[in-house]
Amino acid sequence: MRISTKGEYGIRAMLELAQRQGQGYIQSSDIAAARLIPESYLYQLLITLRKAGLIRSRRGPQGGHMLSRPADRISMAEVVLTLEGPIEPVSCVEADVVEDCPFHETCVVRDVWRRITDATRAILEQTSFADLAAQELARRTEG
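Predicted structure:
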């Protein structure tokens, strides 16, 4: 699995919102500046994240964006799946793919792809944006 610019920028935006949790609505221009994301691109990502229920948005002078729930209850897996789609490296290990490969019952390579998928999913599910925000803050204070 390779994370695209879309996924990378979306994760950066969510991390910025996690760092600012409790500060109210954060304007997209502030997120863009803090995380070096082109604002026009960020706008599209924020729409997708809002539709997925990961953030809340409000228009107007006091508007902006905020996480829809506490950062410790939003995993990287949710954001990656929302912005990137399935995390499986090959389609034959996707849950909803019909077993149309003639080797699906005996393929040992498929087993490796499944283990990679399971490990990746577990890491992403176990990593919350609160974890990331705390790690980032610790690194900033170390240096």
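Summary: The two ends are 31 Å apart (CA to CA).
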